[in-house]
Amino acid sequence: MIRVRCLRGGSRGAESAHFLGALIGRAVAGWVQKTFQSTRAAAAAATTAKSSCVADDDHKDQATGTLAKECPVCSYNEWDPLEEVIVGRPENACVPPFTMEVKANTYEKYWPFYQQFGGQRFPKEHIRKAVAEIEEMCNVLRGEGVVVKHPEIINWSENYNTPDFKSTGMYAAMPRDILLVVGNEIIEAPMAWRARFFEYRAYRPLIKDYFRRGAKWTTAPKPQMSDELYNMEYPIFSVEDRHKLAAEGKFVTTEFEPCFDAADFMRAGKDIFVQRSQVTNFMGIEWMRRHLAPTYNVHTISFKDPNPMHIDATFNIIGPGLVLSNPDRPCHQIEVFKNAGWTIISPPTPLIPDDHPLWMSSKWLSMNVLMLDEKRVMVEKNETSIHKMFENLGIATIKVDIRNANSLGGGFHCWTCDIRRRGTLQSYFN
Hints:
Distance between the termini: 5 Å
């Protein structure tokens, strides 16, 4: 196996090396050893437990190498044939309060919008159009033979308080942000925005149902989200500041406690790739690495990105040996993938008009596509140039218009979380 070296990539690599070195240095060597011993012991105990669904990947059908058929959850990568998916809901979506972590992740031209409407619902007419678009998207998925599930509809405008902060909610529009499926396990991400602290509540009925039917369910450590998690004096006043801070490997989130969004992880069988971003810190990455070891390898990669948040509009693996790599945000470790024989595709420039509101994302949602299998992709209807790119690759395009849904911060990959894909666990980096 070719291992992705996570300590390359300039200043971000230096920060990664510094953090990981401090984490496993002499002062904590004994503690780390005990931690891993405990993790192995817990894993060993889990393999002996009886359940209707396998406890780990060692308990497989010996003839096919697949997970037990009765398990409703099974997904190892981003491209195996899709059988069941969770699709988010735009209903009741609220503008998050203009806190430091929100400011660090949004574009300067939209800051007045957040200052004026933070804590209130997004424009009613825009949400109405987004609801219609997502309903049509779900109809198309069903027509392609995919089972579609939804989170609960919740009133996100209600105020809530914890011992450390107060906020309103945001939405349950992007299941990819909060849920990561690895094999037969659903991992609930801790998140990093205060407005998303209680977002998991919308998904709990679904997750409990999957759990009762045999899936594994893990909730990552819930962060306090106190002021210590954030650089409350994060010096960002313009786009130029954002570029400078990113180049120095500085982020609005600190290493006070683990935090991560699931959308910063990209799955490729036994290898899972992640970026340190404004919402995913090194402690969160390390938690995931230990949790998934030894079956899965979690590799940190980095990009020339002035505002890293969620990997799937920067680096989207769409098939075995095939990855869309954003030309505006080149990967510092791209040679590793080339040396492994992968094909690197640079998607065309997005066609979305400049006057279309994108309150929480960039135009590169054009590459935020959903693979239904290796030969079918769901793609934005209006992005004609990327249609041609896929067709040249021999991949049929399933075109759906979700321009208004894009405004809420996501493309097809963001708006979904694949629960079941028909496939087996493999390594794609031989």
